[in-house]
């Protein structure tokens, strides 16, 4: 593949920097292009997202694919805010988007004045606490699984690449999700360090923030409650996210993640 010029926008949703590629790109080139873009030091990005052409008859305002065809809550928030700004919308607006990794369109409430976006997150398939594990630090750890995403919640264990890799080896052998993360959560400081692996592009990042990981943490924290709405403000290495869990008769009815998003101007890059 020769040199090509791409139009991109750099999003910074609470420190989890994402490169949005606006130029149409075939899926077969996602991995190669992502690798090149992530190696551009001035972007200092953790993820790449590709904007797709849409059929407006489908009642959505935009469609995007992550480079590994996974789901990403922070990218969803950023994309919706970008759409609203491109359309010249002001104040509060609901933006409906199609996102890789989930079947149904997502609703994102954006505030163009405050540069914030709140995404309605997909519901988990499985929630449980681990026990009788070979890796001792997994005993009493929380496990939250979404479609294609599996997160482990570790309380009061310092973030460590060694621990992450040991858990990753175990999880990929037994479950093999397209996205796997360990959320290292300090219960005293209410601070989380997300470490996330994306299988199809073979990348691991200590992320600035993680929306699905924040959701998983808050689901785990709210397990002791059966009814009501519970909001959690979670600081992370490069920003803060606010997650909300609404429950009725011990069933999750609604999940949201909210936070600030900064967007660059559209720019050209040759790779």
From TrEMBL:
<dbReference type="InterPro" id="IPR058944">
    <property type="entry name" value="CntK-like"/>
</dbReference>
<dbReference type="Pfam" id="PF26317">
    <property type="entry name" value="CntK_N"/>
</dbReference>
<protein>
    <recommendedName>
        <fullName>Diaminopimelate epimerase</fullName>
    </recommendedName>
</protein>
